[in-house]
Amino acid sequence: MSVLTAEKAERILSDAPEQHHFRLHMGTNIRNLKELAEALEIMADRTFFHHVGDGKNDFSSWIKEVVGDPELAEKIKKLDSKNAMVKTIRSRLHYLETKPSEYEILKNDFMRMGINDFAVGALVGFIVGVIIAAVL
Questions:
Q1: Alpha-carbon span 34 to 66, nearest angstrom
Q2: How many domains does the chain have?
Q3: Of 19, 60, 98, 117, which one's alpha carbon is 20 to 30 angstroms from that of 91?
Q4: pLDDT tens, 7-31?
Q5: Can you list the alpha helix ranges (DSSP code H) found in the chain?
Q6: Are residues 16 and 62 in the same domain?
Q7: Same structural domain for residues 41 and 108?
Q8: Does residue 58 sit in the same domain as residue 116?
């Protein structure tokens, strides 16, 4: 399993190229995970079971091969309930949408270190200043 970076999360959340949209049994095209979750919420059972069942899960295959999220694909592979699938996809969407970039993580770490360094420097400077003032 590869490391999920913010950049990879962004790719997973983006629209699939038009030739790789998921085409539902009844003709609707789905471009991304958010649209898949929305479609599943209102999808007729007949349409859902056209794509899921008898050892297949077209949604899982599309997520793995087109969207590029094998982790989510594996989670929904054996689900045979629209509600469970929607819940799992929405949970993954929330995680992907809140994934901070490496730049943001490094920036926050640097700022924390900078604040600590500043506090230590100010304290040392104050002590040295007091000693110098006492000596003079």
A1: 14
A2: 2
A3: 19
A4: 888 999 999 999 999 998 777 899 9
A5: 6-13, 33-42, 45-51, 58-62, 70-76, 82-97, 102-135
A6: yes
A7: no
A8: no
